[in-house]
Each structure stands twice: as structure tokens, then as C-alpha cells.
Amino acid sequence: MSESDKPKAPEPSGVDLARVALRAAKEAARARGDAAQQKKQARRGGLRSGARADGRDPLALGSAINRLISERGWETPAAVGGVMGRWPQIVGEDVAKHCVPERYDEDERVLIVRCDSTAWATNLRLLAPTLVARLNQDLGQGAVRLLKVMGPGGTPRRYGPLRAPGSTGPGDTYG
């Protein structure tokens, strides 16, 4: 497969570029501030405690988590986790009773949803483009590229003397 035949990763949108630029600017400003603070402390004779806030002060839990998420670049997975918690509000109560999000593949940007029957899986496949648009509107453009709908999982296969040869058990009826 040549370079021109390979599918190209989509270019980051304006919002994504702005987030990256903002994060880089914050890190650069923080680094300049830390360097200036270290010079100041070296002139005063070392690290001292004072009335002003510095990097050693404790943070509120929410602030610490938000800082960790932004430093590690976990904004999209955290937002998708929030979507999984708000699933009934996004898709509606009826659909949420029968279809549950299982996981999100960050590399492929695919949300995997499991339904309790093949009828609901088919229904959700028909609604998939609308749901992907709604999720991208909520999370930011391009966060979810594909909604993969899975049918119900079959019961474990039981082997025994009263089995028909070649039968795969209850899984025969699931699509």
C-alpha cells in the first residue's frame, strides 16, 4: 500500500488547535514563573514559607483533578466518561433501557454500545449517524467518529450428551 493510498488522520479542527496552543502557552508561562521564583528564592537564601500562595499549597480536589486532566491531555476520554454517565439524557430513557455504552476506543475514536436484543441493535444502527452528531456536538467535533453497535452476548455454551451435533447453542439465534 503506497503512502497516497493510506487513510490519513483528520487534521485537528480549530477548537483542538486552540486547546493545544493554550496548553503550550500555559506551560511556557508556568515555566517562566517557576524560573523567576527560583531565582528570587536563591537570592533570599533558599526556600521559605510565606503568606503568599506558591506551588506547595494544597489544592481543592476538583482543581487538582482538572489540572491533572489538562496536563495529561485526558480531556476527550474524561468527556466521553461523562457522556457514559449521562447516557439516558443523551439517547432518551427508552433507548437507554436497552442499549448501554461499554467502552470508548480513544485511538480509533469509536464508542462501543451493547444492546439487549438484535431488534434494539438494528434500531440503534439506524440512529447511529444522529447519535454521533449529537455526541460530537456535546464533546467537540471529531471526538466520536463511529458508533459500533453490538448485539446481545449469548449465554455460555454448555456441552453435554443431549446436544445436537454442529449446534452452537443459544447463540444460533443472535445476529
Task: Describe this protein's structure.
The chain contains 6 helices and 3 strands; from the N terminus they run αααααββαβ. A 3-stranded mixed beta sheet has the order 1-2-3. It is mainly α. It is elongated.
Describe the strand arrangement of the main beta sheet, using strand numbers: 1-2-3
Order of helices and strands: HHHHHEEHE
Helix content: 40-55%
Output mean pLDDT: 76
Radius of gyration: 25 Å
Give me the count of strands: 3
Number of helices: 6
Principal-axis shape equals: elongated
Spans of at least 5 consecutive residues whose pLDDT stays below 50 are: none
Distance between the termini: 33 Å
Largest sheet: 3 strands, mixed
Q: Structural class, from helix and strand content? A: mainly alpha
User: β content, as a range?
Assistant: 5-15%
SSE layout and pairing:
Blueprint: H1 14-44, H2 61-72, H3 75-85, H4 87-91, H5 93-98, E1 99-105, E2 110-115, H6 118-139, E3 146-150
Parallel strand pairs: 2-3
Antiparallel strand pairs: 1-2
